[in-house]
Task: inverse folding
């Protein structure tokens, strides 16, 4: 995890879509793991706002993450609460 | 004994445990009205999901759905309520309103994602479920599975790549 940096590696800002999706997924995973620091929030907002492809990628990554969280597990997971 | 008690569907379980599920949401979002909205949203998603997918532990799945939606909402509110994006013309706009989004998940989308995760190697799937659903840290997953945290990180990325790979099949707005 890129814990020392504010942003994950962006892998290029071209409009090909795939690097943006990778970056978006890194952000989504990071948010899943912990609360973002203010500088990270700002970096994410800047990245999303800097190109419509980024904004769409982030939205799609969130949707993917939501869907993945709604797939019933096949493993017997430890009970919560 | 009623049919519901004999073989409870997740939807039936949800209804039977509604206030407990709403309380679980309320613990996270700290607002009763919002918790009720989340419970209703989760209920719809649970009913839709079990049409297509096998739910082995109905009540646990209800809690899974409620938690996911509540945590998602809480994070978004916290992160985005005061953030702005810069539009092309330099105007600042609020990134996402603070209201809960009732994202209509299509059954087809859920099936596609379930299929993608279903093709992962068993240990990778296990690691991903511990990560995504149980909310365990990568380090704790490593301890649980008896593998290095590095390998866990690799497996999480593998699962993420599988999700990315099915993106083009999904209908996303």
Result:
């Amino acid at each position: 995890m890129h814990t020392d940096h504010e942003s994950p590696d962006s892998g290029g800002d071209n409009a090909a879509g795939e690097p943006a999706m990778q970056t978006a997924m890194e952000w989504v995973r990071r948010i899943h793991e912990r609360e973002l620091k203010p500088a990270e929030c700002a970096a994410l907002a800047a990245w999303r706002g800097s190109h419509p492809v980024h904004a769409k990628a982030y939205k799609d990554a969130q949707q993917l993450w939501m869907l993945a969280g709604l797939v019933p597990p096949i493993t017997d997971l430890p009970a919560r609460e | 004994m009623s049919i519901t008690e004999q073989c409870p569907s997740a939807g039936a379980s949800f209804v039977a445990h509604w206030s407990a599920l709403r309380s679980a949401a309320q613990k996270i979002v700290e607002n009763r009205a919002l918790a009720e909205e989340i419970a209703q949203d989760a209920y719809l998603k649970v009913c839709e999901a079990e049409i297509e997918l096998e739910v082995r532990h109905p009540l646990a799945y209800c809690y899974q759905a409620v938690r996911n939606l509540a945590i998602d909402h809480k994070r978004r509110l916290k992160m985005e309520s005061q953030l702005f994006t810069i539009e092309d013309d330099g105007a600042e706009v609020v990134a996402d309103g603070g209201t809960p989004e009732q994202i209509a998940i299509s059954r087809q989308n859920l099936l596609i994602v379930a299929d993608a995760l279903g093709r992962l190697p068993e240990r990778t799937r296990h690691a991903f479920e511990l990560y995504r659903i149980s909310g365990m840290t990568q380090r704790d997953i490593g301890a649980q599975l008896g593998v290095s945290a590095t390998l866990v990180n690799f497996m999480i990325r593998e699962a993420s790549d599988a999700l990315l790979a099915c993106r083009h099949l999904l209908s996303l707005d």
Notes: The first helix of chain B runs from residue 3 to 6.
